[in-house]
Amino acid sequence: MTDIPQNEVASAEEAAPMHAAVERRALAEFWFYFSENRGAVIGLVVFLALILVALLAPVIAPYGPNVQDRNALLVPPFWEEGGSTAFLLGTDAVGRDMLSRLIYGARFSLFIGLVVVTIALAGGVTLGLISGYVGGVLDTIIMRVMDVILAFPSLLLALVLVAILGPGLVNAMIAIAIVLQPHFVRLTRASVLNEAGRDYVTSARVAGASPFYLMTRTILPNCLGPVIVQATLSFSNAILDAAALGFLGMGAQPPTPEWGTMLAEAREFILRAWWVVTFPGLAILITVLAINLMGDGLRDALDPKLKRS
Amino acid sequence: MILFILRRIALLIPTILGITIVAFGFVRVLPGDPVLLMAGERGLSEERYAEMLKQFGYDQPIWRQYIDYLGDLLRGDFGNSIVTKKPVLTEFFALFPATVELAFCAILIAILVGIPAGVFAASRRGKLVDQVLMGTALVGYSMPIFWWGLLLIIVFSGNLGWTPVSGRISLLYYFPAHTGFMLIDSLLSGEKGAFLSALHHLILPSIVLATVPLAVIARQTRSAMLEVLGEDYVRTARAKGMSPGRVIGVHALRNAMIPVITVIGLSVGTLLAGAILTETIFSWPGIGKWMVDSISRRDYPVVQGGLLLIAVVVMVVNLIVDTTYGLINPRIRH
Fold it and tell me: What are the structural domains of chain B?
């Protein structure tokens, strides 16, 4: 949408302001459709708040994530009998403040989402571009490999990959990125095949653009819509899968305040102390929900087919 | 039609080979010596080591090992569990019905609740009901189901005491497993209360496993219905003076079902992935829990065989879905 062939003929000085104007208009149009979706705006606000919480964790958390108070084991939240305002959401089995751990946990979940999506996106888009643009044997090989990855239930494959690599947060992120990236490959390849025959690509090629320039500067910007939507979906999937791996003991290891790992530690107190189980899961749900709400809004704003109706 | 099915199967062959390479490669890329890994912490004498090396064929070149592995698979030999010493295939078939039973009940709940919810939301587009239903669906779609399961246990097993926490049936009942499906076996046994007990054990895990597919089906049904409701033949039906119920139920729903069926079929992979978590939470003796336990016990032949078998199950189901889809909609056959 933003890359117009004339830009290539125009001199650099002329192109820059024009480009900026086009981008500004596209952004305004995007915001118009995005803000029409009330849920998406709520999701965005919650998501921004979570980022703020994660960044300011050391400032706003009342305690350190691993500080134990031996005199305050399994203290209930402040509104329950026996609770105290010293620990607003109560404490866990070794006397750590739940609220502080949850606040620090936001750092992990957002970091996991960011890293996983970056790896999956970069790898997937690159492979998809190559597959779609080059075609032939390379295309067949890449797509068959992706088919194989997609043949396994994602969580199972991630589990097995972590078993190979060894349990831990970094390996869990790598495993999830591998499992999520075929979606990006397929999506990018499909849009490349769709765009490659269009006139603007042909004209750029005739104008002498190199294959690399064609792939990255001419075709790629026009495939980004669905890829961005997929990235939001993958962001929430990554958080869910990482929490699931943590819950199964294959992700982040205790005492890391990762929400899934916290749930795994809390499991044995499930019938005695509801708060150690309830809050970490609620944190996961709110985060994932906020991102999915944004994703719905993004789809509405970026999908031209729905826009017309 | 037969040609269509055969072509589909032929297309699967490279993927199946790829899956065997993944399963075969899995044990080889594990850090460390596979024989020592299987021996665990006890260690091995030198003779025993050499013997095991030969027994598993690790003294052969790698391509030779792979060919042998394929040969074993074709003969139905998926290796033996290190822990139980039983063949992996036998264990798989012993546990598989439990997962199928759970998954079947889950998808049934998802369909029976999801489709009406989607249709209802579409018919009240933009109204409060629509917003509430779709909001709920999005919450379900975003749900970390392992946590959802724990919450349901707290409320229904802990506070209310309505349902058991784990297992497939109360220990009070014992009867032979004819089919492996507890609901059917308990009915066949004729023991009083056995069926109810089985149902009690099944209900929470099914709801947990149904949550995500239910949300997906409801959302898909709604959007498919909205698309169809804008078509000319629906307008014609309305113009003919047909009741809104008939228009939605007969004309629109039938045509909206095609994408919904696809989504139902594709959720089999989701169900099996969800079964890993659901079975772990409820100690449900199915293949999901089997895989998790085997991974933590380092029972690698089981992980290897299970991985392969589960992938094949998913592929076969997808093939069936594709074929059904071809039957309903002849256009995609070509």
Answer: 2-74 (no CATH), 91-333 (1.10.3720.10)
